[in-house]
Amino acid sequence: MAEQRALIGVKYDDPYAVEETFQLFKIPWEWYDPSHAYDVVIARRGEVETAGAFLVDLLEKDYFAEIARILNEGLPHCHEPVVEILIDELRQVLKEHTLLVEIPPVPWGYSYIVALTHDVDITSVRERRWVSVGYAVYQCLRKGMVKDATCILGAKCGIGEDPWRCFEEWMRLEEDFGVRSTWFFLPEKGMAGEGAPAIRAGYYDLDPALIKTLTDGGWEVGVHGLDNWWDAGAAQDELRRVSDLTGAEVGTRVHWLLFDAGSWKKLDEAGYAYDSTFGYNDDVGFRAGTMQPYRPRGCERLLEVPLIIQDGGLFGGKTWNSSDDGGRGACLRLSEEEAMERCDEVLAYAKQYGGVVTLLWHQVSMAAPKKWGEFYRVLVERAIADEVWVASVEDVTRWFERRRKITLYFDIRENGFVIQLNGAEEGSDMANLKIFVPLHGSSIQNIGTEYQLGNTIVKITGENDKMSVYLQ
Ligand SMILES: [Zn+2]
Hints:
CATH superfamily of the largest domain: Glycoside hydrolase/deacetylase
Distance between the termini: 22 Å
CATH topology of the largest domain: TIM Barrel
Number of helices: 13
Shape: elongated
InterPro entries: Glyco_hydro/deAcase_b/a-brl
Helix content: 25-40%
Number of domains: 3
CATH architecture of the largest domain: Alpha-Beta Barrel
Bound molecules: zinc ion
Number of strands: 22
GO biological process, one term: carbohydrate metabolic process
């Protein structure tokens, strides 16, 4: 066999920035080796001998620094996936000078991914204090929902069904679509968290029977963090409270999306599989510049699955943790029609670039006075019609973990080329990964596996870690 040869060599002094960029933009590449011949070298002019290769000069534009900065620091009110746009700019440059093969951030057979989540701040009217019940009743009356106001008051006095306990309704809705979601539960009752106003506290105990019903039914249960984002001890304790009940790996989303620069590392060290806090309370969009799960700097294992669209951001009045200064701030307060337009913009980006549109609809938002459940149902219905993979965060994270483990090699032969995949897990179901080969269908004679013409997408299967592409 001929020596494996990467077509792209990279020289850069921040390995994390390069490695993470090429986890999102999954193509064959290697660290620059002066004894190898390349089509393209990515480096700063003057630091390498290009020997005829095309140079992507990082002095002109430092893609790696820019991408690593956005992923780890985030952007306020960002309405386009700027990391994906940077990657696409690099992709177009590389395509002109070499043959790119790429594993896109979308499984075979799907156009993009939607992850469904529910934060559980409230589980019943009864547990809430009179002041918050009174405020909800007032909001109902203002909207003319007299019957709902009566039901809420009744439930607070122990009469009739509790309208704020919507678990069964959510489960029915998702069962009808054949999809499952992730539920983030507060780990402790009556705790606002250090430095937070008292209103941040929840007033329910973790309910082992409810959690068992959810996990037995295929739903995922995670931690709605209180202090895990800043305190290493709390991070472990909150994780254990939930994982003791689920017996499974646990991810987290922090209540009110509280977060700081050290949070990822603490969550990673405590053993959380993922975090899904990085998003906006008062907006919709791309705080991390991408919809792809990624590894924040300094983390061994944890992936961030950015939060993209939440009910409160679209329809809410005010948030306690605005994306401008972390204080009180206004949400978008959109009509349903305006909200659907904003969501359509996001879904169009997902179709173009792939990745995961993570949705957050709060447990109680199905009920009056909010009644945002129908909008969620329409969104999920639309995703399914778009041939989207709709899943829990856990399942999505697992898929991206498998994609991350793979290294692509590329070897040109006399009558075509060989694509080799290393690191595909033994016995794991790799059937839903795919590779883009940007060749016109007419130039291909045969590929040793299932493929689709057009963009030419090759299906990766477990048995198939090496694929030969024969050209005409
Ligand atoms: Zn919350």
